[in-house]
Amino acid sequence: MGQQAENILEFRNIYKAYPGVQALNNVSFSLRPGEVHALVGENGAGKSTLIKTCSGAIYPDAGTITIAGEDFAWLTPKLSRQKGIAVIYQEFDLVNELSAAENIFLGKAIRKGWIIDRKAMNERSRELFRQLDIRIDPDVLVRDLTVGFQQMVEIAKALSEETKILIMDEPSAPLTNQEIEAMFGVVRRLKESGVAIVYISHRLDEIFQISDRVSVMRDGELLATMDTAGTDREQIVKLMVGRELKETFPEKAAKTGDEDVLLELDHVTGNGLKDISLSIKRGEILGLGGLIGAGRTELAQLLFGVEPIKEGRIVYKGQEIHPKSPEKSIRMGIALVPEDRKQQGVLLHMSIRDNISMPMLKALSKISVIQGRQENDLVERFKSSLRIKTPNIHQIANNLSGGNQQKVVLAKWLANDPEIIIFDEPTRGIDVGAKQEIYGLMDELVKAGKTLIMISSEMEELIGMSDRIVVLCEGRITGELRREEFDQEAILKLASMN
C-alpha cells in the first residue's frame, strides 16, 4: 500500500491569505490512522488557520483536502463532522447550566417520537465515559465539574459522532498536572482504538510524551515533519523561531534584601482568602505558586479592586488603601494582566490602536477631543517595542494570534505607566519565542523600577522568573521561599498542604 493510502487525512498545497497576511503558504500535511501527530509553531505560524480549514470554519484559497481517499477543495462544518472530524478548541464549547449528557447530545438529542429520551442519552453518555475510563455522572451540571472533567465531556461529545480524526487545540492549557496525566491516558486509549489525533501545544515536553510525529510551522509554512523519537527540543525550537534560544530566563540580579516595601497585606480576608499577610518589595518579581483554585487569582482580584476585602488592611507606599474598584486601583498605579485575555484583557472587536490607547484617552485628549496623532505615535511605539505582528495598528484584535493579543494587553497597561503590574498566567497559550520576549520585557520592567506580581502554574517559569515565591493552598499562605530555597518538590509540598 502506498503512502497516500496510509493517510486518513491529507492537506496538499494549501493556501490562505488575508489582507496583508499570507496565513498559509503551500502547506502539505498528513495524518495516519491511530497516530498522535503534534503540530507546533509560534503564535501566528498558521496552526489555527490550518485546523479551521479542516473543520470547515474557513475555506482555503487553493489546494486539496483528502479524507480517507476522497478529495475536497474545501469543507463545510457539517461535511467535516460527517467525515468524522471533531475539534476541541482551547475555549470549551459547553453550556454550564446543562448536564454532562445534555452537553454531549446538544443539538442531536436522542428522541422517542417527539419526546427527548433522557434515559437513552444518559446510558450512551455512561458508555462513552467507560470507553474513556473515566467516571462522570451524566446528570451532573457541567458548572459543577472541574476543568479536567469538563474537557473529558468535550472529548465524549466529540466521540459521540463516530469521530475518526480528533483535533485538540492546546488541550492541557487549563489543566493541573494530575489532570494532564489523566488526559494523556485518554489520548493513548483513543489512539489504540484507531482514532487519529492532531495535538497542538506550546508545551514541548508534552510533545515528546504523547506524539508519534511532529510538524513545525512558521510564518504560514510547514517547515518539517519528523518522527518525534528522532528529534529533540533544541531542533524543534530552532525551526519554530528561526534562531537558537540559548537562555530561557533572564539572568537574575542579586537582591540585597533591604529593598523598600512597596505593598503590604496585613491579615487580609475576603474573596475566598483567609488571613493573608505578605509584603512586596519595590523592584522585585513576587511569584505566587499553588494549584488551580488555591486563591492566587482571587488575591489579584482583591488588589485590583474587583472584589472587596472583608477584614485586614492593605498598605501601599506607607498609606492604607481601599481598592474598591479597578478604576481606583488603576489611578493608584496598579495594573492587572488577566489570565483570560479574550474575556477580560482585550476587546476583540476593536482595533489594536483603540485597545492600547483606551486607558490613556483622558491624557491624549484636549477639550474632550482625542489627539489622533499623539494616539497613533503612542500605539506605534508599543507596537514596535513589543514586536506586535500586524500589518498596521488598525487591525482588529480578533485577527491577531494569541501571543500578539497578549502583547496588546501588556501594551495597554504599560501605556498607563503603572508602578505594580500583576501578571496572571502571563505566558499561557503562548509559544516559546513569544515567551522569551515577555520574559525579557518583565526583566526590563523590573530594571526600570517596576514591581511585578506573577501568578504561574508552570513550575519552570515560577522558579526561573521569581525573586521570591509565596505559595497558597485553599485560600491561605502555606509558605514563602527565597531564591536560594527554590525547589520544585518544596513548592508542590506547600501547594498541597491542608
Structure description:
The protein is α/β, with parallel strands linked by helices and 498 residues long. The protein folds into two domains: 3-241, Rossmann fold, CATH 3.40.50.300; 261-495, P-loop containing nucleotide triphosphate hydrolases (Rossmann fold). Helices cover 34% and strands 26% of the residues. The protein has a six-stranded mixed β-sheet, with helices on both faces. It has a six-stranded mixed β-sheet with strand order 18-21-22-15-23-24, with helices on both faces. Strand 1 (9-18) and strand 2 form a beta hairpin. Helix 6 (147-159) runs parallel beside helix 7 (177-192). The chain is globular and about 70 Å long.
Short description:
The chain is α/β, with parallel strands linked by helices and 498 residues long.
Query: Helicity range of the residues?
Result: 25-40%
The parts where pLDDT drops under 50 for at least 5 residues are 1-5
CATH top level of the largest domain? Alpha Beta
Averaged pLDDT, please?
85
> What is the number of strand segments?
24
CATH topology tier name of the largest domain? Rossmann fold
Q: Can you tell me the CATH architecture of the largest domain?
A: 3-Layer(aba) Sandwich
Count of distinct structural domains? 2
Q: DSSP strand (E) fraction?
A: 25-35%
The helix count comes to 18
CATH superfamily of the largest domain: P-loop containing nucleotide triphosphate hydrolases
